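By way of example, what follows is a protein record of this kind.
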Amino acid sequence: MRRPTFDLDVLRTFVTGVEFNSFAKAADRLGRSTSAVSAQLKKLEAQVGTPVLAKSGRGLVLTPVGETLLSHARRLLELNDSIFQTLHESQAAGTIRLGLQEDFGEHFLSDILRRFVQTYPRVSLEVKIARNVELLALVESGGLDLALTWDTGYMSPYATRLGETQMHWIGARDTPLLTALDDSPLPLIMFDAPCVLRSAATQALDCAQIPWRIALTSPSVGGIWAAVAAGLGLTLRTRIGLPSHLTVVSGLPAVPSLGYVLHRGGDDPTPATQQLAALIKTSLQEQAFSFAVTK
């Protein structure tokens, strides 16, 4: 049996007339003449194959088929309006200010941007790559709409802990393992304090009674990777963005996992901001899965 395709304009007229309990009012609301509304209702009943309205005194009431149709018509119109709203919002211009800790900025940014622009091609992004302290200060001052940081124990008013990743001791693949067996302090390559990974490294070594020294500090992750590759020492990082010429080093004190948190700048994010937050979460979940598979 050939199934007819319902006209959404006709369904909207039907639903509006029922909700106003007057098709004359519906005609006025929809900017149509009463004769046009009457023609639409006749078309609808012809498609359904049975009356959807019946006379009751001086008015009209829904037939049982009409009641069923009303429920489905409302759902169809809601879906239609939702699709239109989503497409309209995707074309809206604007700017989102995104802050990322450098590990995430190097590894996730291109993938997130590629996915985001497919849905919101006209929304501009202002990306700030910085360390936790600066990012959290910008969130507090309203300078960022979203910020992805390491979990330092501070939770802003609109923060969500997305997950965690394991910290590892990292060294160069082609450099002999640096140890403290000769009682020389273990050379470390770190960020300046305060740094959550630096604190975790020194605390673990102190608990294991392994002497250490800061051999080099760098303001960037790239600088840390370069110093480790040069054999100047070891560092403590996660596997996020780990270069292929560096490797996880065993035989040193165990360290805990490190959480990551997504901070929002307010309680009423735009649809584009919500979409970007969802993409960040998805990207992190995919990365966590890939780490689990390659272990």
In short: The longest strand covers residues 159-172. The chain has three domains: 8-90, 94-164+259-294, 166-256.
